[in-house]
Amino acid sequence: MKIKYIDNNQSMGIEYDYGKIKKEIKRLKLYPKKTKEGDDEVDVWNPLHVPFDNAKWFVFMSLRSKGKTTNFLIFGLIMNKLYGTVTQYFVQNDRLLAPKMTKGLYRIVNECGYIPIITEGRWQSIVLKARRWYYCNYDENGKISEMSKDYVCIMSAVATAEDNKSVLNEPKGDLIIYDEFIRQNYLPNEFVTLSDLISTVRRIRQSPIIIMLSNTVNLYSPYFNELEIADEVQHMEAGDKQIITSSGGTNVYCEIIDPKQSRARIKSDRMFFGFKNPMLGAITGTTTWAVKNYPHIEKSDKTKVLSRNHYIKYSNKLVNLELATTDVGLCVFVHWATRTYDDSIIYTTGEIRRPLDRYKIGYTRLDSQIWRLYQQNKFYYATNDVGSFVESYINDVRQR
Question: How crowded is residue 194: how many other Cβ atoms within 10 Å of its Cβ?
């Protein structure tokens, strides 16, 4: 197949026909439409509906494993077959690239026998060698007898990207997958580091697409703010899909994959996990957002508010911290806020713009007292999403 280039200029990258890629996947029947769960048949998620021509960043989230990574690895193998594309598989740190963590990356692809189908019998399997995946054949003793000259996928860690920039040369690295981008802890300035790694792979090409995958849906991940999709994401529900354009004109496709389960799975989950803890929604698929229960307490006649002057500003959101005395002693009531005042003290991990702005958790004796109450679990939240917001802020603080 003759390869076309954007603006007839090879340095600008390949002009991909995503319709042709999807058509080949359908022809080879690589994405099953249904899978069996008990007596039910349930839909299997795949990316054939995704408008790859209309954005460059693609964000996919679900509370359960829905086969996202495997399906995009298959997508990459078809891109390789038709265009020679090399999948770039990113994780946060080198620990996640240890062989024991990554050797099963293509396990399902191998177990389903997809490699001979994709390569039309030329290769039997795919194997990992030095953070690269190659096609291979085996002899009658089960030993590798032949490997492809070129790798079809290379794995990199965002945390050590700076060390590898000089040796990273991927002129056909046009499918970039960042797996598990939502997590408990982030690298300092992780988004900038990730973008720098993407820039190293991309050079000046316009052809790459960036796939962001997560099995956690944390409402206040800093990535939402960095990608300028935070406001839209907070109003999305399972099954929603949306293209959001940033202030600078970058299109981001966002999809929250529907976690619906079969009747057999629901019945089975009820037998083991029929408890009220909302975080179990990540197991049972009954919720969209991973928001746990946080401490709540009602104000009483004995409650005396000592200060309403402290705020947290983070991810384009604002909460007010009310220092008060109650039946349980000194504590902090936390609730959403819509504005601050000239004398407001604002905790932030962003730029310091005013004399009363405090970086991270501040430095005064009163700051120390407030955050000591946090350590003592004496922050009481108006709602669980306020608690999730504060926890996300503290996690970010600890990484800086």
Answer: 22
CA-nearest of 282, 310, 294, 284 to 388 is 294
Contact between residue 390 and residue 379 where contact means Cβ atoms under 8 Å apart: yes
Any idea where the domains of the chain sit in the sequence? Answer: 6-256, 304-398
Topology of domain 6-256 in CATH is: Rossmann fold (3.40.50)
Q: How far is CA 133 from CA 80, 115, 144, in A?
A: 12, 12, 14
154 vs 269: which has the higher pLDDT: 154
Q: What length is written for the chain?
A: 400
Say which amino acid occupies 182. I
What's the mean pLDDT in 75-102? Answer: 94
Q: 281 Cβ partners below 8 Å, 6+ apart?
A: 63, 259, 287, 288, 290
246-293 pLDDT, tens digit per residue, is 999 999 999 998 766 545 555 666 667 666 666 566 555 555 555 577
Question: What CA–CA distance (Å, rounded) separates 6 from 202?
Answer: 14
Give the whole-angstrom CA distance, residue 193 versus residue 195.
5
- Three-state DSSP state, 271: helix
